[in-house]
């Protein structure tokens, strides 16, 4: 499989992608645990069917020390006992924020659950992370970026 478009191969695509990668760095330097951000990236990517992002974020999570067992259970996080209550709240927010068309948006209950575990800056980080991974997912799915060849840290020098 070959991508329909090399986003780094056009001036606008390259600039835009570099800004998205820079935004991701900002979020990963914020005060939400990086393992939680990885879980959010993975869950949204599962929902959106973005193989490229799943390949990237599972490999990055493994390289950062996440266990394969937890990564294998992200899709079934409600039934899995290996996630903390804070992680569950972040995963629930990620699902609600990714599936906006399936409901009336993020419910008060979902927001309250997240707010119980995260302060305002952390909530801002989670909201931005969910929006950002959805942007990456949609772009990658549209251009059909193939999965499987990602190497952890591959985009560290970009941006």
UniProtKB/TrEMBL annotation:
It comes from the Bacteria. InterPro entries: AhpD-like, AhpD_core, CMD-like. Pfam families: CMD. Residues 27-96 form the Carboxymuconolactone decarboxylase-like domain. This is Carboxymuconolactone decarboxylase family protein. It comes from Catenulispora pinistramenti.
């Amino acid at each position: 499989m070959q991508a329909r478009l090399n986003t780094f191969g056009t001036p606008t695509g390259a600039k835009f992608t570099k800004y998205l990668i820079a935004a991701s760095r900002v979020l990963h330097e914020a005060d939400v645990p990086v393992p939680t951000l990885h879980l959010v990236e993975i869950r949204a990517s599962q929902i959106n069917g973005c193989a490229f992002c799943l390949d990237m974020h599972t490999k990055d999570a493994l390289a950062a020390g996440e266990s394969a067992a937890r990564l294998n259970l992200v899709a079934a996080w409600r039934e899995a006992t290996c996630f903390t209550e804070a992680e569950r709240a972040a995963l629930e927010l990620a699902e609600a924020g990714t599936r906006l068309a399936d409901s009336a948006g993020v419910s008060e209950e979902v927001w309250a659950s997240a707010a119980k575990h995260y302060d305002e800056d952390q909530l801002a980080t989670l909201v931005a992370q969910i929006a950002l991974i959805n942007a990456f997912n949609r772009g990658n799915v549209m251009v059909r970026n193939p999965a499987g060849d990602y190497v952890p840290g591959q985009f560290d020098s970009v941006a």
